[in-house]
Write a structure and sequence with these properties.
Length: 421
Amino acid sequence: MTSQWSAPTAQGPVHATVPVPGSKSITNRALVLSALASGGSALRAPLRSRDTTLMAAALAALGVGVADGPDGSWLVSPGALRGPADVDCGLAGTVMRFLPPAAALAVGDVVFDGDEHARVRPMGTILGALRALGADVDGDALPFTLHGKGGLPGGEVVVDASASSQFVSGLLLSGARYEGGVTVVHRGEPVPSSPHIRMTVSMLREAGVVVDDSVADRWRVEPGPIAAREWRVEPDLSNATPFLAAAAVTGGEVTIPGWPATTTQPGGAVRELFERFGCAVALDERGLTVRGPERLSGLDVDLRDESELTPTVVALAALADGPSRIRGVAHIRGHETDRIAALAAEVTRLGGAVEETDDGLVITPRPLRGGVWRAYADHRMATAGAIVGLVVPGVAVDDIGSTTKTIPDFPGMWSTMLGAR
Ligand SMILES: O=C(O)C1=C[C@@H](OP(=O)(O)O)[C@@H](O)[C@H](O)C1
Ligand SMILES: C=C(OP(=O)(O)O)C(=O)O
């Protein structure tokens, strides 16, 4: 169901403190690692949104116990994985790429499907890799069926992960449970979103798994147990960026409490990005605070490592004083939608000038007018429309419900932020 939403226009500089829910990427990794662990685990402050509840439901369908604990935590009790099971991936890259390598450990058939937009997201690399490692899987895209044999020989596999880092992360997350572990070698154009692979490696090590990532584009996971543990989930720093952008575009000040001093999330690059737009950024005991300038500067930036931030960056660039260029994100044509085409189309429809390039976008700011901003079922397209709507009267986002993919109540958080003084 889609839901059109009139984006509120800010009545002045936005001043607010905005707590943001847990990280999608950390929550879904912690769920998979807990499901494959040797005992019961707890996730504290997990994200509970569409992507993570789909992951929890998929694990439950495979025989894992996922129960509600105190204060919104999740308690995970591993069980022998078994089919037959149906897995709904929704539009979640982390479900469609992290779960098949785990489902290969199940006995029985596991059928994967997802939203219409999910059926065109790249999957061939990871399904081909699983076949090379000994799995029996039909198809190269959603929907597909994995005929689980209760385990996998594992070993070395060569992949081209230039379309998504999630191909590598997915194989590594389950690899310790394969008889021979797993060695993933990447050959091709550079792997995008590499902080997310470092997040995978770091969480595997926290769970006692031996990982060698000392050679570029090669990851070795030794076979062995995955330790049960308590996972504390950081706030989602990428989902913090629309709120920080509200300060940037209105000359206001927004603080995100609980911002980690160090992090493997690519949102860690947020500080530098906002500074380059001309904002003042401070990290102190209150959290991360962004103060907006009188006018935003344009920038020339390679977002390969932080590609999921592109929609926020394009919204800011469209409202800046000078032109911007975004490079290094060719693969985001395979995200929730073709984000390069979608961003160019929506900014252009409101009167902006945007050119698509092979690996990104060139944005020349022009005065924008109101109109419908299409989300293409993509949560970050929707939040980009909300940012533009803060300073351009009459913007309506056609499907604000798409934000539930990673934020349970984005419209509520947005109006609370605007109501704060
Ligand atoms: O592993 C993860 O949690 C993610 C990896 C990235 O995917 P790509 O490598 O496909 O960009 C990122 O964009 C996505 O939002 C989350
Ligand atoms: C690319 C994204 O999501 P997914 O995990 O579905 O790939 C994203 O959240 O920007």
